[in-house]
Amino acid sequence: MRNIENILSFNDRFVENREYEQYLTDRFPDKKMVIVTCMDTRLTELLPKALNLRNGDAKIIKNAGGIITQPFGNIMRSVLIAVYELGADEVLVIGHHECGMTGLDPENVILHMTENGIKDETINTLLHSGMDLKRWLTGFDDVHDSVLKSVSIIRNHPLLPPKTPVHGLIIHPGTGKLDLLTKGYDIVEGKQN
């Protein structure tokens, strides 16, 4: 059986046995937080457990690297929706050690694209159309700096309520150990950390 058939078969049993009942909650985060983090598979269950989060406690936004590259992109929009419409009142940016975005070479990504059937003409059109494809596909050199950059974009966003705490952390993808880089409460209260 292929993945989708396995998923659908399992889902039929899951619903029939009413296993969903243990996860019932509403759309508002009980702990009133929104988390921006990486899509790394090691964090799927580890991150919520390491933060003592249960289903319904937080809005979790995942992308490659857990980074915000554009102040008016999809990730920041999701943060603002979580704050204004879903009751979140603080933000956590959580990067992790051994991230696949560390040192990501856009030239290598483009090579893999062409090896998988994307035509050179398509790549060239994008490269010459004003879209900065290479920048869009670039990772980061240091997770610490990446987290702090994303935190800065959120903290300085003109549409974020001024007293919103924005924290920056790094999690170890094996142990779940958290390292606090910057505490948003200190910034909101005028203290430096």
TrEMBL record:
The keyword Cytoplasm does not apply. It comes from Paenibacillus sepulcri. Pfam families: Pro_CA. SMART domains: Pro_CA. It catalyses: hydrogencarbonate + H(+) = CO2 + H2O. This is carbonic anhydrase. It comes from the Bacteria. Belongs to the beta-class carbonic anhydrase family. SUPFAM superfamilies: beta-carbonic anhydrase, cab. Its cofactor is Zn(2+).
